[in-house]
Amino acid sequence: MQEHLTKLDLAHIWHPCTQMKDHENLPLIPIRKAKGLYLYDFNDKAYMDCVSSWWVNLFGHANEYINQKIKAQLETLEHVILAGFTHEGIITLSQRLCALLPTQFQKCFYADNGSSAVEVALKMSFHYHLNKGQKRYKFLSLSNAYHGETLGALSVGDVALYKETYKPLLLECLSTPVPQSEDFEKELKALKNTLEKEGKNICAFILEPLVQCAGNMHCYSVKFIDEALKLCREFNVQVIFDEIAVGFGRTGEMFALEYCEQKPDFLCLSKGITGGYLPLSVVITSDEIYNAFYAPYEAQKAFLHSHSYTGNALACAAANAVLDIFESQNVLENNMVLSSFIWEKWQGLKSFDCVGNLRHCGMIFAFDLVGFEGVRKGLEVFKKGLEYGLLLRPLGNTIYLMPPYILTKEQASYIIESLVKILKSLTR
Ligand SMILES: *Cc1c(COP(=O)(O)O)cnc(C)c1O
Question: Where are the transmembrane segments (predicted)?
């Protein structure tokens, strides 16, 4: 069965983020079912989902509570056009999201994936300035940033692997260096220079607060973020926080913006919002920004952007269920305990010569394989991980753990013990 499916798959499916030729000798793994941390293939082999299925899953696969809520929603309303119509799930969800955020966050604009949320925030910022009579047309972002792979989102990103080929198609954007340590004087100076030169042309500065996840899990200074936001204010440049990966408890707090004194104008959320069940994303902003678009129809100030599945009712039911779990189960407190437990064990990996730059932030743990420049050692770790029943999906030679929050200490210990064995088996 497994082999049959793999063959059929390769006959018809072009997979994301994949050189398909790799699958000539790297078998695809069809998954038959999933439960909790585990994915099961057609031979009933289990894999621990160490990457939350691309950072989306929070409370395990086939979570009984979320299942039940989606099933109930399915029986009443699966989807309805969100233009001119609305539904209870999305109203409840929006109210709850705003209640979790600082008071200025009052308006939710929905889309159905992370990249689209970034597109929405970019267009909204541009359009805001336009409605205020200012023609600004540039965006500023950090080096090593990742904001998705549609053309606008790719334009503000900086991960060469995704961007290089498509450069001729992209918007011209400005980039400023991300700090490499707590000493960020140089980076702040660079930002100031750019703002002095280009500030009046820049709509917004977009950044992933605390951790650049796709940028090899680069953790950087929250103090820098505060200083950077202050500078942006001086130049009337708006700020977009892309919390698509770090939102919903990943960094320890519910949202990364809670670590910052300065707050952004736009907050982009997706990934964990539905607990990894269904596509949904949202851009949350202030009444002040919303009001810049609020005018008689003829004034042509409306924000015109839509996706067919915007605000899907099933996805909203999943999102509401996720918020229920956060409310009822002390998720953040439990994560704090689990995070220190994992971090302590993770640091034990320091003893390997090939392990460098161990780091963590909340429920994100990472290290780099060093001494293998230009060699796809991460791929070797991936393959060996499968033998231990681990789904690891290294970012190049960065190995990371970004597990669902239902991970137990025993499971965490097993993962790290397996990593020890894998690292021992790596040859130069
Ligand atoms: C995943 C991600 C995106 C893009 O989301 P998609 O749903 O994959 O389009 C954007 N920004 C960040 C920080 C992400 O991690």
Answer: none
Helix (H) or strand (E) holding 18: none
Instruction: Look up the domain containing 419 and give its range.
Output: 1-62+330-427
Query: What is the reported pLDDT for 160?
Result: 87
Pocket of ligand 1 (CB under 6 A): 113-115, 118, 146-148, 208, 213-214, 242, 244-245, 270-271
**Ligand 1, closest atom to CA 281?**
7
DSSP-derived secondary structure letter, 156? T
Please report, for the domain that includes residue 103, its CATH number: 3.40.640.10
Q: Which pLDDT tens digit goes with each residue over 57-93? A: 999 999 999 999 999 999 999 999 999 999 999 999 9
3-state secondary structure of 238: strand
C-beta separation of 228 from 205 below 8 A = yes
Its pTM stands at 0.98
> For the segment 343-372, what is each residue's pLDDT rounded down to a tens digit?
999 999 999 999 999 999 999 999 999 999
Residue 51 Cα to chain centre, angstroms: 12
The first and second tokens of residue 30, run together, are 């069809």
Domain boundary among 328, 358, 393: 328
